[in-house]
Amino acid sequence: MSRPQLHTSVYPAIAPETIGQANKGQVAVVTGAARGIGAAIAEALAKSGADVALLDLDEERQAETKAACEKHGVRARPYACNVLDLKSCERTFASIQEDLGPVDILVNNVGANARRPFCMETFESFWSGVEMNLKPAMACIFQVLPGMRQRRRGCIINIASRAGTVPMPFGGAYCTGKGAIIRAVSCIQKELEMDGFGDNIHVYALHPGATLSQPSLSFHPDVAEAYPQEAAKWAQFHKLFKCPPAQCAQTCAFLAAGRGKALRGKYFDCEQDIGTVVAAGEEGLKGLYELKVDFLGGLPNDGGTAVAVIEHENK
Ligand SMILES: NC(=O)c1ccc[n+]([C@@H]2O[C@H](COP(=O)([O-])OP(=O)(O)OC[C@H]3O[C@@H](n4cnc5c(N)ncnc54)[C@H](O)[C@@H]3O)[C@@H](O)[C@H]2O)c1
C-alpha cells in the first residue's frame, strides 16, 4: 500500500468545489468557533450547506464567525456556552434544538496546551489541563448521542492532537486529555457498530495538522526561564507549523458529508491525503489509525486470555 501524500494546504479531495453542498440542510454545532481552527470549521460547514451553531465565550469574535458563515446563505447562531460546564452545555443544546432543530453534526474543537513540565504543575493545574482537552468533548457528546441514536444518523468529529498518540515533555495534561478522547472515540464507535448503527453514526478523532492558528504558542515565561533550551527548541519546531486552519476545516466538511466512513472510530492526521487513505477501505485500514501496543514476538494484546488458551492447549 502506497504512502498517502502529505499536504500543507487545502488539496483537491477536500476542496470546497469537490464537497459542494454535501451538508445542505444539516444542523452542525462547532465548539470554540470564535477563532482559529473552530472558526474555519464553522465556515467550511456553512460553505457546504449546513446551518451552524457557534459555541464560544468570546462574543465579539463569535459575531465575526457568524457573519462569515451567513455569507454562504445558511443560518448561523452564536451561543455563549462554557463547554467546561455541563449545565451550560445542557442549556445551550436545548436552545439549539429549539432554534435550529436536531443536531446532525458535532465538532468538538475546544482544547488547549499549557506546555508545563509535571514538576512545575500543581495537581489542580494538571487536572484542569486534562479536563480542558476531554471534558468539553464528552459533555457535548452526551448532549447529542441519544438523539442521533434515535434518528439513526449523525457525525461527531473531535479535534484531538498528535500529542494524544506520542509522549511529549511539557505536555503531560494535554497528551493525557487528547489521548483519552482518541480512545473514547474508538469505544463509542465500537458500541455503535455493536448496536447496529454501523456507518449511520460515525465518530472521528483528528489531528488538525501543524496549524498556524494562534498568535503565540510560546512557553510561559517561568517555564522558558527554567528550560531555555527546550523553549528554543519549541520556537524552532513552531516554525514548521504550516497548515492553514482551512485544511482541517475542509477535512471536517468531507467527513461530515459521509465521505470518510472507512475511518470511523479512528484517529486521522489532516496533513495526510484523506482521499488516498479512505480509498484503502475498512479492510486496508484494519489495525491502522488507532492507538495500540505492540509486544515482543508479536504476542497479541488480549489481556491474558492468550495465556489461558496456551495453557489449555498444553494440558
Ligand atoms: N494549532 C495546532 O497546530 C494544533 C495542533 C494540534 C491540535 N490542535 C487543537 O485544535 C483545537 C483548536 O486549536 P486553536 O489553536 O484553533 O485554538 P484557539 O485557542 O485559537 O481557539 C480556541 C477557541 O475555544 C474557545 N474556548 C476556550 N475555552 C472555552 C470554553 N470553556 N467554552 C467555550 N469556548 C472556549 C476560545 O475562546 C477560542 O475561541 C484545540 O483542541 C487544539 O488542541 C491544534
UniProtKB/TrEMBL annotation:
GO cellular component annotations of the record: membrane
UniProt keyword list: Oxidoreductase
Pfam families: adh_short (PF00106)
Molecular function, one GO term: oxidoreductase activity
InterPro entries: NAD(P)-bd_dom_sf, SDR_fam
Keyword Oxidoreductase tagged: yes
PANTHER family noted in UniProt: DEHYDROGENASE/REDUCTASE SDR FAMILY MEMBER 7B, DEHYDROGENASE_REDUCTASE SDR FAMILY MEMBER 7B
UniProt similarity note: Belongs to the short-chain dehydrogenases/reductases (SDR) family.
Protein name, as recorded: NAD(P)-binding protein
Lineage, broadest ranks: Eukaryota, Fungi, Dikarya, Ascomycota, Pezizomycotina
